[in-house]
Design brief:
Dihydrodipicolinate Reductase, domain 2, 8 helices, alpha/beta, 2 domains, four-stranded mixed β-sheet, Rossmann fold, 10 strands
């Protein structure tokens, strides 16, 4: 399959580098004048990887569909307001997309650990959950999409407690950290913490290419698919990840 990357920032080039390590040439296109790519520039692509910005996702998907692209990996964050419109466009065109707050395989597995931890600590009185995330100074969304997803999974598995406040989430924007997420449970006599620290964007690029491969292995139902579906297939067939 031929893959084209939309977004010439750090993530877009990380995906291109990872694809190059596999012997693949992937064009990287920056933000076009006027905010919408010319469909002619996307012709011949089997998969579009959107590593741009949240406010460009809907226009990028629309341009890709007009170019005849049927597979998308939506790696930008901050487009929740356009989610319904993106899904409607995909379904109408018979196209499929994989989306996630983070395409890191480590984050995907970490999220499952957080869910299990919430079930365990939620069954015992006295443990108060919290979440801290730290990203580079220039990251726009606060909290990050990953933090929001971790918070959603955490809250969904904690028992309802009408006397408690909402989950405490702290966002730090400083320096050049590509991403750190910490989930903790604090009690009077002890604190338990689960931490995931990204060293660079290669982890996200690896997951994005896994999503590209997943889309190419079999026809997928039109619409949006969670990255969890890709992870489930990798866990069921470890050879696929090799």
């Amino acid at each position: 399959m031929h893959t084209t990357i939309l977004g010439d920032g750090h993530l877009g080039w990380a995906v291109a580098s990872a694809a190059g390590d596999r012997g693949e040439r992937t064009p990287v296109l920056g933000r076009p004048i006027g905010g919408r790519h010319d469909p002619a520039a996307l012709a011949g692509a089997d998969v579009l990887v959107d590593a741009s910005r949240g406010d460009a996702v809907l226009a990028n998907v629309s341009a890709g569909i007009d170019a005849g692209v049927g597979r998308f990996v939506l790696a930008a964050t901050g487009w929740a307001e356009d989610r319904d419109a993106v899904e409607a466009a995909l379904r109408a065109a018979g196209a499929a997309a994989v989306t996630a707050a983070s395409f890191s395989l480590g984050v995907a597995l970490f999220s499952r650990l957080v869910e299990r931890a919430a079930e365990l600590f939620g069954a015992v009185e006295g443990f108060d959950p919290y979440l801290v995330e730290w990203h580079r100074r220039g990251k726009l969304d606060r909290p990050s999409g990953t933090a929001l997803e971790l918070g959603r999974r955490l809250s969904a598995r904690l028992p309802d407690d009408p006397t408690s406040d909402e989950l405490e989430v702290v966002s730090i924007r400083a320096g050049s950290s590509p991403g750190m997420h910490l989930v903790g449970f604090d009690a009077a006599g002890e604190t338990i913490e689960l931490r995931l620290t990204a060293r660079d964007r290669t982890a996200y690029a690896t997951g994005i290419l896994a999503a590209v491969d997943w889309l190419g292995r079999a026809p997928r139902t039109p619409g949006l698919h969670p990255f969890d579906a890709v992870v489930d297939e990798l866990l069921a067939s470890p050879a696929l990840a090799a």
